[in-house]
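Title: Prediction job returns without error message
Component: structure pipeline
Severity: low
Priority: P3
Assignee: unassigned

Description:
Job completed but the reporter wants confirmation the result is attached to the right record. Sequence as submitted:
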Amino acid sequence: MEETNWMDLLKPGDKVIVRSGMGRGDSLHDGDSLRVVERCLPTQVIIATQHGQRRFSKKDGYPIGEDKFNASFLVPWTIEAHNEILRLRALNHLWRQFKSIEWKQVERLNKLECSELKKMLDDYRLSEIWRREASDLQQ
């Protein structure tokens, strides 16, 4: 009996993850993105993107018509992977906020500075970006 490819079970509206082209490992990369299946053909999965559509082969999950070297590829959506992508995005956002700090001038964090950091994290959680990403999870 032949094993069923998970991509053969996809249908329009299903969520998938487009893994960034940094390798075929199991770990999540900060370039991964959450996407929705737009159409399914016998040999292709068509994903809606910000700039139109992108076609992936059901055979190997790679984009059709693109170089496979460092190419992105499809992986199954899970709630754990979804939450990890949101966590990595939040960390990247924080990194962009903190990379401008001249750390050599920071001798140590005191309680006031820690509370400011907590406030920044809370503000991000309440920001439009966080709400938009959290709403993706519920759709």
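Comment from assignee: result matches the submitted record. Strands lie at 15-19, 33-40, 44-49, 52-57, 73-76.
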